[in-house]
């Protein structure tokens, strides 16, 4: 019997193949006396230059915009003079180049972890830079993915951007990592590439090379030591899935014609590589324009960025989220004071309490961009908790001529007051990632709490159902833009709950379209009822699958 290990499914789909593990980091030799500090400094400087140039070359070759941006940012970290200065301080204290680079990267890593949120997610970049720089000093090959000469499932402690950016989906069938979370590089790029992926799977450490695996990126289960006939069945299923993906086109519909709009989650116009495959944009994350800046982007810069997206989608809906800063996305230019618990502090719409001019400029820019395009421009505020907040935001947006104004539902208070929110806004968009973490008091980066973060939790589904019911009563649309929308089976449940649009990464659209097309609205509603009545997420998924036949 195969053994099953479990993690957090972050990119849907199933795959089967032999496991091959990423090589471990280079091992430091024993520390010894430093005969020539100047030579060690030169070695450290050259190693960091080599790493920065290597990452820059990878960025230039990366066809995926997200991969390119991640690699460029990592290259800048390697080239940061502060990192070299830290290594030189270690050399001056008697360390060799390899040990000094190791210590310097460790110090910078701790600083990022202490900053929390978005910066803490970047701590893994320092691990990768450390491994590459130490390997360069020791004359070892730079770390990279294995190449067994045939398709395989990649197992790793974690994956750095330089590793994931160059992955070939024809060779790497799926990803399984011991660390990581829903917003890690592995998760983001796996979804972009359409690869099944499971992260936070601690027991993956015991999987030997060549072991035949079955990976389910929906449930997070990894079957270890499966039989060849089981693997063959999974491969046939994956091939059929690819055929359905290639054949499916057009708007989202259930088998009996009930419309469910299929929209994209994007960070910029670069993410619109195939906009014709979706009905519009359900989440334009504008904060990517603000990240890593000392000053806010100008009005003109913002107008240009928003116009590029709107003009690419004439006649289609584009839902733009205003700046979602704070917590896991701290922005230095906001100069917000430190907080003991930033996830419960000044984030999202709340930043306008202390820096109202940032939101005013953004709304002005959005209105100007909307006037210059034929897209259907919708705008929504993140982290809305009260009706008063929603009303104040709607007033500010409508004063500028923005006609479709909404609120995100990311905290339970907003879901509980969905009916009252819809009295002052035109639509609701449910962010299931944040709504789940706040409803279950579970940090969404915490791999140990994967069961609580599962979007199939009946408690989370109940909050979504409340919002959808409020939308039906008010005859106003309610959509889902969290990662739950990308799960094909869960998408049918959301449609059954009354959700009218689903927004996701582009590679997920064909599978979701296919899942909806194979079920009638009545079957979706039956699956939703069974999932709501289930005791836990695994039972909810199983019940919905049974209802679907």
Total number of domains: 3
**Radius of gyration over C-alpha positions, nearest whole angstrom:** 24 Å
Helical stretch tally: 22
Secondary structure class reads alpha/beta
Fourth CATH level, the homologous superfamily of the largest domain: Phosphoenolpyruvate-binding domains
CATH topology of the largest domain: TIM Barrel
Could you name the CATH class of the largest domain?
Alpha Beta
Mean pLDDT: 88
Summarize the amount of helix as a percent range. 40-55%
Uncertain ranges: none
Strand order of the largest sheet: 1-8-7-3-4-5-6-2
Number of strands: 16
For the termini, the CA-CA separation is 27 Å
Q: Shape from CA axes?
A: globular
Largest sheet: 8 strands, mixed
Query: How big a fraction of the residues is strand?
Result: 5-15%
CATH architecture assignment of the largest domain: Alpha-Beta Barrel
């Amino acid at each position: 019997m195969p053994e099953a290990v479990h993690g957090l499914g972050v990119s849907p789909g199933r795959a089967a193949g032999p496991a091959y593990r990423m090589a471990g980091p280079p091992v430091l030799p024993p520390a010894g006396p430093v005969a020539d500090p100047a030579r060690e400094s030169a070695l450290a400087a050259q190693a960091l230059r080599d790493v920065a140039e290597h990452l820059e070359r990878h960025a230039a070759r990366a066809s995926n915009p997200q991969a390119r941006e991640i690699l460029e940012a990592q290259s800048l970290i390697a080239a940061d003079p502060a990192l070299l200065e830290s290594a030189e301080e270690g050399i001056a204290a008697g360390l060799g180049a390899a040990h000094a680079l190791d210590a310097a990267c460790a110090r910078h890593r701790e600083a990022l972890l202490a900053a929390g949120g978005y910066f803490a997610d970047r701590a893994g970049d320092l691990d990768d830079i450390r491994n590459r720089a130490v390997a360069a000093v020791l004359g070892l090959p730079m770390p990279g993915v294995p190449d067994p000469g045939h398709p395989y499932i990649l197992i790793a402690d974690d994956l750095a951007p330089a590793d994931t950016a160059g992955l070939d989906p024809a060779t790497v069938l799926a990803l399984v990592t011991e660390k990581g979370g829903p917003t890690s590089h592995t998760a983001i790029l796996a979804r972009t590439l359409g690869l099944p992926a499971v992260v936070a799977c601690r027991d993956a450490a015991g999987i030997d090379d060549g072991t035949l695996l079955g990976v389910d990126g929906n449930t997070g289960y990894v079957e270890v030591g499966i039989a060849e006939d089981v693997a063959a069945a999974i491969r046939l299923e994956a091939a059929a899935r690819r055929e359905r993906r290639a054949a499916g086109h057009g708007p989202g519909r259930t088998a009996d014609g009930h419309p469910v709009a299929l929209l994209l989650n994007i960070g910029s116009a670069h993410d619109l590589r195939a906009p014709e495959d979706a009905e519009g944009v359900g989440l334009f994350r504008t904060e990517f324009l603000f990240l890593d800046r000392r000053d806010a982007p100008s009005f003109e810069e913002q107008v240009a960025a928003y116009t590029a997206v709107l003009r690419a989608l004439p006649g289609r809906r584009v839902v733009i989220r205003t700046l979602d800063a704070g917590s896991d996305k701290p922005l230095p230019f906001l100069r917000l004071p430190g907080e003991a618990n930033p996830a419960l502090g000044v984030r999202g719409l709340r930043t306008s309490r202390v820096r109202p001019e940032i939101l005013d400029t953004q709304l002005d820019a959005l209105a100007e961009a909307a006037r210059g395009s034929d897209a259907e421009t919708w705008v929504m505020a993140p982290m809305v908790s009260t009706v008063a907040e929603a009303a104040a935001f709607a007033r500010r947006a409508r004063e500028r001529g923005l006609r479709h104004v909404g609120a995100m539902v990311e905290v339970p208070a907003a879901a509980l007051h969905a009916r009252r929110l819809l009295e002052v806004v035109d639509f609701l968009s449910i962010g299931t990632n944040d709504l789940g973490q706040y409803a279950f008091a579970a940090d969404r980066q915490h791999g140990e709490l994967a069961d609580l973060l599962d979007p199939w939790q009946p408690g989370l589904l109940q909050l979504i159902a409340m919002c959808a019911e409020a939308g039906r009563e008010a005859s106003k649309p309610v959509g889902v833009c969290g990662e739950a929308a990308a799960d094909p089976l869960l998408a049918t449940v959301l449609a059954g709950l009354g959700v009218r649009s689903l927004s996701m990464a582009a590679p997920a659209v064909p599978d979701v379209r296919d899942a909806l097309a194979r079920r009638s609205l009545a079957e979706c509603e039956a699956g939703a009822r069974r999932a709501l009545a289930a005791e836990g997420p695994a039972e909810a998924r199983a019940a919905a699958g049974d209802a679907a036949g």
